[in-house]
Specification:
Length: 366
């Protein structure tokens, strides 16, 4: 299942999460909707690529340690292979393959996929008027430009406040302190300017994977600071091309690292960069995964998860609105989006095949 999602999941983390919810909650029943929301909330509290970490969480919950490895690797590897192939074309011919047609065809379907997931997940996440008000405030704060992590933390703290007044405790503070210490330690890695080498490449990407919260645009800021400004290993143009490839290929956006690694060190560089940026996600999920069910049993930690869950959906809602405002400006995309949404709500077609068909049509029309 994750191999197929990793091959066809266009549209970024929000779309990936929506497709996973469709597969593992509604179609297969591997997780309840509340369990899925709890794992989604947990991924937003740790650094790294959210959709990849959610895949790893699902694998761990479904089949233990083998599931953790299989789910994560299956979701990452298809995108890594595709990005490596594009990087080879880029290095060989000096330009990127045409991807605008594929992206243009896929976007209306992606909007429908995410909207459908929001519709279903909201019923489980918004369990009270209090949580509904938190969701509205989170949407307003995100739309106003407040950083995603601040929105998530504020929602968790506000929801935990009533539980704290009742005197219930949890290990949440210790977990956050440990995470903060780890972040500070990794932030010190690779501050000195060093010549290019594969070990140095691995350390830089491992640092980024360990401390980065947020979207692919946050990844752009980290890559620019390290690879363009501090190390001078990439030009601005190369960096923007790398980020573009990560955005328009299926699977995790963090495979931008694969492209950068290939530019700097060929196939070996691509492998080292990919392992470096994704390895922390496996470690964080392995450490936090067993805690998620126990956190739900704690009243305070459960309240924090409820707050983070509704804030996570608020972030998805804002991203979906922004994408819709930029995409649904002509009759054809609007019709495609509406028809896809109706088909998904009725359950007549799998989201994967809608996206594949839309990508093929977009490429042919282009």
């Amino acid at each position: 299942m994750f191999l197929r999602l990793g091959t066809t999941a266009f549209g970024g983390p929000a779309a990936h999460i929506a497709m996973m919810e469709d597969e593992v909650v509604r179609r297969r029943g591997w997780l309840t909707r509340q369990e899925f929301l709890d794992y989604l909330g947990a991924t937003n509290l740790i650094p790294g690529p959210n959709s990849t970490e959610l895949a790893i969480h699902i694998g761990l919950a479904r089949a233990g340690w083998p599931g953790l490895i299989v789910a994560g690797a299956s979701f990452i590897l298809p995108a890594a292979f595709v990005v490596t192939a594009i990087a080879w074309v880029y290095v060989t011919y000096g330009s990127l393959p045409a991807v605008a047609g594929v992206l243009g065809g896929v976007k209306p379907v992606v909007i429908a996929v995410v909207a459908q997931a929001l519709l279903y997940l909201t019923h489980s996440a918004v369990k009270s008027k209090w949580l509904a008000s938190i969701a509205v405030l989170a949407i307003a704060a995100t739309a106003a430009g407040v950083h995603e992590l601040l929105v998530l933390l504020a929602a968790g703290v506000v929801c935990a406040f009533p539980a704290a007044l009742r005197g219930t405790g949890s290990a949440t503070g210790a977990i956050l302190l440990t995470l903060g210490a780890t972040t500070q330690a990794w932030a010190a890695v690779g501050r000195a300017v060093v010549p290019f080498s594969l070990p140095a490449l691995f350390l830089v990407f491992a640092k980024i994977g360990s401390v980065l919260f947020g979207s692919g645009y946050v990844l752009l800021a980290f890559l620019r600071a390290d690879f363009v400004e501090r190390l001078g290993w990439l030009t601005e143009s190369q960096l923007l091309d790398a980020v573009a490839v990560g955005q328009v290929t299926p699977g995790p956006v963090f495979t931008t690292a694969t492209f950068v690694g290939y530019l700097l060190g060929g196939v070996a560089g691509a492998v080292v960069a990919t392992i470096g940026i994704f390895l922390p996600a496996f470690v964080f999920v392995a450490l936090s995964g067993p805690l998620v069910p126990r956190l739900r049993r704690s009243k305070m930690a459960g309240a924090v998860l409820d707050g983070v869950n509704v804030a996570s959906l608020a972030l998805m809602a804002v991203v979906t609105w922004q994408l819709a405002a930029a995409t649904l400006v002509r009759p054809l995309p609007i019709i495609v989006c509406a028809a896809s949404f109706v088909a998904l709500v009725r359950g007549t077609v799998n989201a994967t095949w809608l996206i594949v068909a839309a990508a093929a049509i977009g490429w042919l029309l282009a």
